[in-house]
Amino acid sequence: IIIVVMIVIVIIIIIIVVMIVIVIIIIIIVVMIMIMVIIIIIIIVVMIMVIIIIIIVVMIVIVIIIIIIVVMIMIMVIIIIIIVVMIVIVIIIIIIVVMIMVIVIMIVIMVIIIVVMIVIVIIIIIIVVIVIMVVIMVIIIMVIIIIVVVIMIMIVIIIIMIF
Question: By the 8 A CB rule, do 87 and 20 touch?
Answer without folding.
Answer: no
